[in-house]
Structures are given as structure tokens and as C-alpha cells.
What we know:
Shape: elongated
Number of strands: 0
Amino acid sequence: MNNAAQKLLYELISQQSPDEAVTWLDQQAGKYRSQPNNRIFNLTFSTIVRHFEKADLTLNDKTLQRAEQIRSGWDLSQWDVRQAARTYWLLQLSADSFEEYRKVLDRLFATADMDEQVTLYAALPLYDYSDQMAYRASEGIRTNITDVFDAVALRNPYPAEYMSDEAWNQMVLKAIFMGRPLYLIQQLDERRNPDQARMLIDFAHERWAASRPVTPELWRGVAPYLTEEHLPNIQRLLEQGDKLEKQAAALAIKESENDTLNKQLANYPQSDKELDWKTIGIRYND
């Protein structure tokens, strides 16, 4: 996977960067391969900003499919050329020893500026020892910097594959708190769990008590666990909610497969075409 990812990234940055920049990167890679040295590695990572522009990658469907084939869930759609060059460089890191590998990356995470942190977190699923770096994802979701949080939580397969339920639930709750689009979190439905549903309902109650809005996407995380106990919440949405909230309530009830709630839903006929969760998320956030 690492070699295939390197090859794709190299092709992309070569197509969109000056020859001088690509030649410089080749020379740095040659130096590092002939003499793996942490100083060269760290210096090159921090110097890439001088050689590669922060311009959107030019991508087509074939390239996006190729990325998906290399690493399931790898989504390049929001990457830029500089990020691709930095990630290409990160994949040069010697993986002979996990302890040394982790030491080098930990230092980069500790000293990185915001753009570099975005690269480091978005690259989590590509690292040689990615299965042992869940602590990094958990650390990343503590940030209040939107771009960094998004690099961990959105369009990234890593959290769903490696985060504990506790960390995962905190990430989803924080995404709602920060106003981030839940539909861009990969495997959101597959990782739903009872503890998360309780946290989200408590959060909704807190927001309502403060007369603050609640994203209709929140009910996606609650849907499989709705029972008669939640009837007052659902009635509130169906009676007082806006169009998207009513759609979300109806969709959550249907997913719950709870007979009592489904009978109640018959009292609130929906005038609009039924939406799915992704469409609700897009209409709410975009």
C-alpha cells in the first residue's frame, strides 16, 4: 500500500509542480535513502513549504478511484499539492523500527504548524504503523482548530477503523459542537452505539434548554436506539421542527423499527419527498 500511495502522490505532484521542485524532492529522497537521518527527514518536511504551492490537486474520477483502490476510504478530493508533497515525504520515513518511527512522527506532530498538522493527521491511514497510532487520532480531535479537526474526523477512514468507542463518540459529539458536517464522517452508521445515542440525546436536551438549535444530523446517531422513552423528543421535532428536522425525525423513526413510534409518525404526514441522511446533511451544512 505504501509504495502504491507514494507512486500516485509522486505522479500528482510531478504533474502540478515546477521541475525544480520535483528535482529537489528527488535529491532529498536520494540523500535520505542512502543515509537515513532524522535531521534530513525533519528538515525536508519543514522545507517543502518553500518548493510546493498550496494549490488544489487536479483530480479526475479515475485518480480518485485509484486512491480508493490503494487504500479504502482514502479521499484526495480536498487535498492540495503541498499536502501531497508532504505526505509523499512522510511515506519515505524508514519503518525498520516502530519506536524510532513513532519518535520521528511524534516530534513532527509536536512542532508542526497548522498546515503541517493537517497533513500529518490526514495521512494517518497511510503510515506503515497506522494500526498503532490511534493515540494520535484521539489527540487530534482535542483541537479547536477546525482545519486540523477536519483532517482527523472528515473524509478520513482512520477514526472508524481504529478509534475506541469512547474516542469515537467524543469525536462525533465534538463534530456536532463545532458545527461540522456529520455526513462527511466515514462509517458513521456502522459505528453507532447505545452510549453515543445517550450522549447525543443529552446534548440535544442541553441545546433545547438553552434555546439553541440542534443539527438534524444528530438524530442519525440516535435512530437505531429510539424507543417509546424518546417519544416527547420525536413529537417536539415533528411538531415544532423545521422541514429538515421533521425529515430527520421521520427517517430516525423508520430506522428505529419501533412500532409505537412508527404509529405516531402516521399522525404527522410528510408533505416533502423523503430524504436520506446524506441529503439532509448536505442541505443543512451547505
